[in-house]
Amino acid sequence: MGAHRYFCGNMKNIRNFCIIAHIDHGKSTLADRLLEFTHTISDRDMQAQVLDDMDLEREKGITIKSHAIQITYPFKGETYTLNLIDTPGHVDFSYEVSRALAACEGALLLVDASQGIQAQTISNLYLAIDNNLEIIPVINKIDMDGAMIEEVKDQIVELIGCKPETILLASAKSGIGIEGILAAIIERIPAPSGNVDAPLQALIFDSVFNSFRGIIIYYRIMNGSLKKGDKIQFASTRTDYFADEVGVLKLTMTAKDEVKTGDVGYIITGIKNAKEVKVGDTITLANNPAEMIKGFEEVKPMVFAGIFPVETDAFEELRDCMDKLQLNDASLTFELETSQALGFGFRCGFLGMLHMEIIQERLEREFNQTVITTVPNVSFIAHTSKGDTITVNNPTEMPDPTKLESIEEPFIKAQIVTHADYIGNIMTLCLGKRGIIINQSYLTSTRVELTFELPLTEIVFDFYDKLKSSTRGYASFDYHPIGYRESDIVKMDILLNSEKVDALSALIHRGRAQDFGRKLCEKLKELLPRQQFQIVIQAAIGAKIVARENISAMRKDVTAKCYGGDISRKRKLLEKQKEGKKRMKQIGNVEVPQEAFLAVLKLD
Amino acid sequence: MAGVYIHIPFCKKACHYCNFHFSTSKGLQESFITALLQEIDLRKDYVTEPVSTIYFGGGTPSILPSSEIDAVLSQLSKTFTIEPGAEITLEANPDDITPEKLQEWKQIGINRLSIGIQSFFEEDLAWMNRAHNAEQAQNCIHLAQDAGFFNLTIDLIYGTPTLSDEHWKKNVDTAIALQIPHLSCYALTVEPATALDKLIRQKKLADIDTEKQARHFEQLMEWMKASGYDHYEISNFAKPGFKSKHNSSYWQAKQYIGLGPSAHSFNGRSRQWNIANNALYIQSLAQGTIPAEEEVLSSEQQLNEYIMTSLRTMEGISLNKLLADFGKDKYDTVLKTAHSHLTSQHLALENNFLKTTASGKLLADGIAADLFIL
């Protein structure tokens, strides 16, 4: 039937796959080689790491948004369509990874020959196995000094129970093994299944914002087909749109009349706001709607922080920019927040700390905004003595302790893969962060996977840096939320000259509060400029002061000489000084520079 | 009333802390005087009012032969209207002061000497790389007074690492005992790109101790008050009738013309400054061009300069002038900002003048910046 009718788009000649790899293990380089080898891209167009097209992604060396590209490859007398679906490489975006995996039938498991398997690789691998993906293990960088091919082979065999001879060897950088990888993709990954005559079901695995075309949706068709001009519907919202343009993703978008079962493509409907398009949602036909594909979740922000304009009167401008940012980043949520210290701003929800950093940088780079980001916190659940349940995304929302029955905080399951030498250090770190060890298993005689349950809030602040320094970088880390647990959380306030600074308040476990307060006061002492009067910095839980630092008054601030030639030079200097003061926030009589509001992230 | 400043850009040796424009090579001295006379002629229209003060600064004006100073003075008399009894000051270094020179200066019309004593102690002078020694510091004052110069001012520097609290008191006591009617006392300042700056950065010298500087300044204010000197500007103290008329004009936004390389001029609305390079200065004037840059002050800049300079003086900021010259809005803004400084008693309001208190004098720059309008 289908096989006879469609020669070119033949489902049996389609392979949908992704690459699972740890940062720096060579995923982007391998993608480049596959595109070159199959002439999907000419040398002239070759720009290293084609798939990561945001500036920030290149800089941070990670993929923030997933992308897809179609490769055409002749093999043993037939022409195959290979859809490479790129997946985000950071734990903040693990839901998006899971949807990208759901769009594939197979995955290349790419492991660096000198680094071995890392935590993130493991958790994404488990996700892939859960999705019944065919796993093709590839050891990359085999020609590098320090390659431990046999040891890494053992790790892989141990992990997925494959035969050693099924593991491919490659060097993406030098172009070794590329042909073998292409052959394995075709021979080992199953062709998509699905019924071309069934009602349309297309899984949305990504969307991007294009300032000319609006939102471009990427999907994989599970059943049925999608034609240009179809009236479509999203299963989660049951809202209808027109398919203005459909097509497949070559190096650029290539419009088609129809995209059929098993294939990967894009659709443009004129939607302008990314919020209307949800990753994991199902595209169906409005006049013949099908069920939603399993696994859809509304993405929930994990970390919350305030973003305020430095200049109070720049609020409206910032609102504009936030709206625009949200157009192409649906995972960003925000609502109005008013701070006594900082005026009007937004309480923003982020997928994680990296996401928060990206948003802040995009505001500054793309939108030219100067903003203050406040202490981030996770989402707590407060139960009041009256029986109400309140979601607390902001320290100011925490009910008074006298009216509190209990508080719950989110926990995560964390996987850490490291060298056996660092088990002790990691234990100390995680137990110090209120972690509970759940499992310890040796991947090889020297590589260990540790599993902890940890409060998410402890990860937010400085966990990554600490982990890195206590293992000299030889540890990788991944986590998944595992729900809420009751916990003794208190609100820590910071007072400057007896005035509470709401923007510096933090929610923290009682057992860690004193130490935290002391360090925060010390840090603020470093960051606040000396002023003409003494500044007292205090950390308080309720009415109890738990830490205090003083900044003594400036002793002398006057130029000795001010004669003819000094006047204009001196005036300019003082004008500059005044300009600098304008960029600080006046809290009571204390001037607070921008960076002090994030002091909490820089504690030792 | 206008002032004339003449910059003499030559020194015998370089003091470690000095960032004024000077050269220790004397090769260009003669052609410099020629250029200077030429500049006076070219700029005869800059000053619109009679000249009441003339000030030879530097550099070290006292290293010039008196005949050259005389030539400059004659050129000034030919070009401008000099008021009778005008204050004519010459900056002199102790090692240049001899009975002969003093007589010559007297004869050509110098009536006020500003002597760069800095300290009466050997270790301080050596630390600063001054050209004179402690004995010369004492001696030159006697010589000046013997020659009939009573309108004298000396410079003292405090807050140097070598200067103990006792020696600082000794320095001030000595000046008072010598009956010097005017003192300029400067906190040692590390100016960028000076030898001192470099030595501190290379950790060859200790950095400035601001606590010590503040202490010396507070002690100074006390001692001078007890001895009947008016603290009429942050760094200047005078017995009644001995304030520097010339320097006061800088702080009262009066007209002045600056002649010579690096010298600054002000005509009420714009500032201009000559190039700070002896050779280029001479070259440019030989071609009949004044080598100067100009900056026209906006109303805000004029206000800021007025705030900055007047806040350094004992009179303070005149609120009447503020209102009359800059208008109600700016007047209100300044008063509003002043409020917190009045509360902290760094500022006081007296007879419609806003002035620094003793504690406020230590913080005058920060207060001025705060009162600025951008």
Walk me through the structure.
The complex is a heterodimer of chains A (604) and B (374). In chain A, a hairpin with a 3-residue loop joins β7 (201-210) and β8 (214-223). Chain A has an eight-stranded antiparallel sheet. In chain A, strands 2-3-1-4-5-6 form a six-stranded mixed sheet, sandwiched between helices. In chain A, strands 21, 22, 23, 24, 25 and 26 form a six-stranded antiparallel sheet that branches. Chain A is an alpha+beta fold. Chain A contains 13 helices and 33 strands. Chain B has helices at residues 29-42, 66-79, 99-108, 122-128, 134-146, 165-177, 195-201, 210-226, 245-251, 278-286, 299-310, 319-326, 328-343, 358-361, 364-371, and strands at residues 2-8, 51-58, 82-92, 112-118, 152-158, 182-187, 230-233, 236-238, 256-259, 264-266, 270-274, 292-296, 317-318, 347-350, 353-356. The longest helix of chain B is centred in the middle third of the chain and has 17 residues, at 210-226. The model of chain B has no long low-confidence stretch (mean pLDDT 95). Chains A and B meet through α13 of A and α8, α9, β10, α11 and α15 of B.
Keywords:
heterodimer; A: 604 residues; alpha+beta; eight-stranded antiparallel beta sheet; six-stranded mixed beta sheet; 25% helix; B: 374 residues; alpha/beta; nine-stranded mixed beta sheet; three-stranded antiparallel beta sheet; 15 helices; 15 strands; 43% helix; globular
Overall radius of gyration of chain B: 21 Å
Helix run count of chain A: 13
**Given the helix and strand composition of chain B, which structural class is it?**
alpha/beta
Can you summarize the main beta sheet of chain B? Answer: 9 strands, mixed
- The H-and-E topology of chain B, N to C, reads as EHEHEHEHHEHEHHEEHEEEHEHEHHEEHH
Strand share of the residues of chain A? 25-35%
**Average pLDDT taken over every residue of chain A:** 88
Cα(first) to Cα(last) distance of chain A is 67 Å
Calculate the mean pLDDT score of chain B and round it.
95
Number of strands of chain A: 33
Low-confidence stretches of chain B: none
Strand residue content of chain B: 15-25%
Largest interface: A-B, 26 and 47 residues
* Side-by-side strand order of the widest sheet of chain B: 7-8-6-5-4-3-2-1-9
